[in-house]
């Protein structure tokens, strides 16, 4: 049995356990439960073109097959990895011969990993979907907003599939033990499930494949499934983290928001997720460097210094030691006072520039390196600050058209309160802080 498993003579357990009907389908009750958004459409056979978006192993392909079966539709399937425009057109031609605009049983065209289709490949689907020659069901692990062209996206409903819950995965394991012909020949005692579920990352297909690997690695007909046994048989826990996909952006977003929200525990957790997923050390350090200015700024200017030192250090050192430096910096930034005043100031200033255009620089603060410029009044009336008490002389530095505009509003923290006091004393109420 073990050799048959490794040399592919038998179907993998995940394939053998694939549900054939909606009644056997586990999870996604928000879509196919009693009040699910797809339940009535499937039972009535009025299926729209749709995109199933969710992580790997959440039942997208299975659901597409069930929809076709229960609505009694012809079913064509393509993989975006191995199919191109030619294959798409061939399937559409077949669909036109069997279905069409005047039948309610138009064929279903299922495209797995539709996000891998190029723009021209996706364009080739538009006419068939628009004219009703096929009902398109696309499966994707990536956000359709970014990976599917707008014209096709507007013709499809998007349904989101979620990771399987712990309870769903336990039901799946028990069902496999009870119903699978090969597993039924073994005396399997499912004592613990935590390691299996953790290693699967909510991916049902991965769960069953790991489970089958563990079972087939034991020669005895009787086997007790424990966490220790699972971890012993499965050497590497591959963290779910796609460095080029949406998971990449979601986790770094959680990391930044945790630091901004002054939660060092959450910051370190999301940092660990990125490190274990193999994220580029410079990418992490660069994001903290930006945050140090954008979200901390003058509330604690040392944050920018530490973040810059962190970037330089981890660039030199690399993994695995760089994780310690990244952790120190993340904890410091999360535990620091916060202010986005500098960030907001430049945003406001840039917006004002867009609104007012190229206002001339006031003559007193123009550069006057030549006699002609001096004769034209460049630099006239400018008071050199260091020639005055406290190195300050009140002057107008903004163009008169926007005089008095307040771009910088110091945050409410000890550092910027000191800045506020300094500016109020110097400008005597000219700016309202």
Brief account:
The chain is 49% helix and 7% strand. It is an alpha/beta fold and 433 residues long.
Account of the protein in words:
The chain has 433 residues and is of the alpha/beta class. Helix content is 49%, strand content 7%. The protein contains 21 helices and seven strands. A five-stranded parallel sheet has the order 2-3-4-1-5, with helices on both faces. Strands 6-7 form a two-stranded parallel sheet. Strand 3 (108-112), helix 7 (119-131) and strand 4 (135-140) form a beta-alpha-beta unit. The longest helix is centred in the middle third of the chain and has 16 residues, at 281-296. It is elongated.
- The rounded Rg comes to 31 Å
Encode the helix/strand succession as letters. HHHHEHEHEHEHHEHEHHEHHHHHHHHH
Question: Can you give the mean pLDDT?
Answer: 86
Regions with little confidence, pLDDT below 50 for 5+ residues = 1-9
Helices and strands: which structural class? Answer: alpha/beta
Physical arrangement of strands within the biggest beta sheet: 2-3-4-1-5
């Amino acid at each position: 049995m073990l050799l048959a498993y490794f040399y592919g003579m038998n179907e993998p357990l995940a394939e053998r356990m694939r549900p054939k009907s909606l009644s056997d389908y586990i999870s996604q009750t928000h879509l196919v439960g009693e009040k699910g958004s797809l339940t009535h459409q499937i039972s009535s056979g009025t299926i729209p073109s749709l995109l199933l978006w969710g992580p790997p192993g959440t039942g997208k392909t299975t659901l597409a097959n069930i929809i076709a079966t229960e609505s009694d539709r012809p079913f064509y399937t393509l993989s975006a990895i191995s199919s191109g425009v030619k294959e798409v057109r061939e399937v559409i031609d077949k669909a036109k011969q069997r279905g069409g605009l005047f039948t309610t049983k138009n064929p279903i065209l299922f495209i797995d990993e539709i996000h891998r289709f190029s723009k021209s490949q996706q364009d080739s689907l538009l006419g068939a979907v628009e004219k009703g020659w096929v009902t398109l069901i696309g499966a994707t692990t990536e956000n359709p907003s970014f990976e599917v062209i707008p014209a096709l996206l507007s013709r499809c409903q998007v349904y989101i599939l979620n990771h399987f819950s712990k309870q769903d995965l336990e039901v799946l394991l028990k069902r496999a033990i009870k119903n699978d012909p090969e597993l039924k020949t073994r005396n399997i005692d499912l004592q613990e499930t935590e390691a299996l579920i953790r290693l699967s990352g909510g991916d049902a297909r991965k769960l069953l494949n790991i489970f089958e690997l563990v079972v087939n690695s034991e020669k005895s007909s009787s086997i007790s499934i424990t966490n220790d046994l699972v971890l012993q048989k499965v050497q590497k826990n591959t963290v779910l983290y796609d460095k080029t996909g949406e998971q990449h952006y979601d986790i770094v977003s959680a990391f930044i928001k945790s630091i901004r929200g002054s939660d060092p525990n959450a910051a370190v957790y999301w940092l660990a997720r990125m490190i274990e997923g193999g994220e580029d050390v410079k990418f992490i350090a660069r994001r903290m460097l930006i945050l140090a200015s954008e979200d901390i700024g003058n509330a604690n200017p040392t944050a920018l210094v530490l973040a810059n030192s962190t970037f330089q250090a981890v660039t030199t050192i690399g993994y695995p030691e760089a994780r310690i430096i990244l952790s120190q910096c993340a904890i410091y930034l999360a535990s620091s006072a916060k202010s986005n005043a500098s960030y907001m100031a430049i945003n406001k200033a840039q917006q004002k520039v867009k609104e007012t255009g190229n206002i001339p620089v006031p003559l007193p603060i123009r550069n006057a390196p030549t006699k002609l410029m001096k004769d034209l009044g460049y630099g006239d009336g400018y008071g050199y600050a260091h020639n005055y008490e406290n190195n300050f002389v009140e002057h107008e530095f903004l163009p008169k058209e926007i005089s008095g505009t307040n771009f910088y509003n110091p945050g409410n923290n000890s550092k910027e309160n000191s800045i506020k006091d300094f500016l109020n004393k110097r400008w005597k109420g000219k700016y309202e802080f």
